[in-house]
Specification:
This protein is of the alpha/beta class and 416 residues long. 41% of the residues lie in helices and 13% in strands. The N terminus is likely disordered.
Length: 416
């Protein structure tokens, strides 16, 4: 009788998924065990465990950072807690988070893993106030812990707060806004969906506060060449994916410096497209590719920006006060909260007033179009108006966020 050998083949994608599930399950079991051990200790000590200060794992103030690209959102908040000598727990999913370089005394930073491992830890937090940029609480893997009293989302863009994926903000207790206007559409969604009203607090834009200081400190270029920054969003409607060579070919022939800064997601989702375009202009010395984590260096160099519906438009106009051209500012809103509003978004209406529309039919004569599209007092006034609406409390966001966190926890304590 012959022995039969059976070989089971698992493709790499499935294997990766199974491995991720196993890691997540292991992390979940670990933290469940840890939580159970704490409960046992609390029980035998005779102390109460209800998510309050008597819970041994309780942290009054917690920040969760899902990636180091959001460090500048949280930096002013950390500085506010540090200067006030108030302990703050900072959990991050980035091993190289810049927080570890700060030498804080009161801000205690800890790497808690990525993906499922991080969510397992977060789902069993005990805290008074948890602040994050991550949307989708209670929608995807990230769940509300029964031992967290208040979850707050800080908006990390000065454009519409309804451009998150569906239900992105629905289950937070508060949303911290960059400008008052963002709250109007959140209220409309709450009414339409019959959900509990959140605290909506306008605090300003913390990362723009950081960038404003840093970009002002960047020295001006000597012998500055006229520079066009192409900085689009990603996806099928994104500028590079939709037009690619049609736009970059005539731009590359202008003799100007052309900086192409793809959206960070493009490197993951549109790698083939970027590889094709990079090879096409590899020998063109005036075409540069910018993949730096921070955009301020390219923003500083640019004399004009060409974009689509990307939020970087507002970074550029608010920080640099220079003209922007937009192509194909249409965005498929079906996957986003904004779709349920059935009304024009603020960012698109404002862009029509402060931006210069660029038609595909104008690509072949792009040099003449840009030279003719000089800045004007009218465009400058519209940029200033948009900035006043979307970036309020300039320079004060970190302190305002810390004030709200502390006020909220103090109110919790007074009720105990």
């Amino acid at each position: 009788m012959m022995n039969t050998l059976f070989l089971l083949y698992i493709d790499p994608g499935t294997g990766s998924m199974l491995f991720s599930i196993l890691i997540g399950a292991a992390a979940t079991l670990f933290f469940l065990g840890k939580a159970a051990l704490i409960k046992i200790k609390v029980f035998f000590s005779g102390k109460k465990d209800g998510g309050g200060q008597m819970d041994a794992a309780y942290k009054p103030y917690v920040i969760y950072n899902e990636g180091k690209q959001y460090w500048n959102v949280f930096k002013p908040v950390c500085q506010a807690f540090e200067s006030r000598k108030i302990p703050l727990a900072y959990y991050t999913s980035a091993k190289d988070d810049p927080v570890f370089e700060q030498n804080y005394e009161y801000v205690k930073a800890e790497f808690i893993g990525e993906g499922n491992a991080a969510f397992a830890r977060l789902n069993m937090l005990s805290a008074g106030f948890v602040l994050m940029t991550t949307p989708g609480l209670q929608v995807y893997q990230l769940k509300r812990s029964k031992r967290v009293k208040h979850y707050s989302h800080v908006v990390h863009m000065p454009n519409d707060a309804t451009t998150y994926r569906l239900f992105g903000l629905d289950f937070f207790d508060s949303v911290l806004l960059t400008g008052d206007y963002q709250g109007d559409d959140i209220r409309l969604l709450e009414e339409a969906r019959g959900i509990t009203k959140k605290d909506l607090v306008t605090v300003g834009c913390s990362y723009l506060d950081v960038y404003a200081e840093r970009i002002a400190a960047i020295p001006a270029e000597e012998n500055h060449p006229f520079t066009v920054l192409v900085s689009p969003s990603w996806g099928a409607s994104g500028l590079l994916m939709k037009y690619g060579e049609k736009l970059l070919d005539p731009l590359s022939k202008t003799g100007w410096r052309i900086i192409v800064r793809p959206h960070p997601q493009s490197k993951k989702s549109e790698a083939d497209m970027l590889d094709r375009l990079s090879k096409r202009y590899a020998d063109n010395k005036n075409v540069e590719w910018d993949y730096e984590r921070e955009n301020i260096y390219s923003l500083k160099k640019a004399d004009i920006m060409i974009s689509d519906f990307s939020g970087i438009i507002f970074d550029y106009t608010f920080l640099c006060d220079k003209p922007v051209m937009y192509v194909n500012a249409d965005m498929d809103l079906r996957p986003y909260d904004a779709y349920d509003l059935q009304k024009p978004l603020w960012q698109f209406e404002v862009l029509k007033k402060m931006g210069i529309e660029l038609q595909e039919s104008q690509f072949d004569t792009i040099k003449d179009v840009i030279q003719a599209a000089s800045d004007s007092a009218e465009l400058s006034a519209e940029r200033a108006k948009a900035k006043a609406q979307a970036w309020m409390h300039i320079g004060k966001a970190g302190e305002n966020i810390a004030d709200y966190m502390i006020k909220t926890v103090e109110a919790q304590n007074s009720r105990n």
